[in-house]
Structure prediction request, 133 residues.
Amino acid sequence: MGNIFSVSFSTEDIPGHCCDCAASQANYICKLEENQVTLSSVEAMKRLDQVQGWLSKVEEMETEVIQLIGDGARMIGEKRLCGSCCLKHYISSYKLGKKVVRKIQHVVTLMADERFKEVADSVPPAPVEALPS
Prediction:
């Protein structure tokens, strides 16, 4: 029998890869202060009202979708126990299916609205009070 596969690599590449890895890890340490400043400037920003409104709609939609998923799972379980030909299950399945399709359309519309040029504004610094000397 012959070899099924063979592995080959050059030992010349190992020092280069080790240096690249060490340099990228050292970069975390060297740029820590700069990255902290950048992060604090992002933290000092306030979401725009239109972005906050969109996020609120997304959170509301998420709650509704989770509810519909739960309702659908219960209905599927009931259909397996009782049979899918029951008139009660047929009508309720139809109504739930219609709700799901409408919700999918709303989700697609909401996802299309997510493109914003700006998502936050800089917050002006808090006023400073002079301490009596």
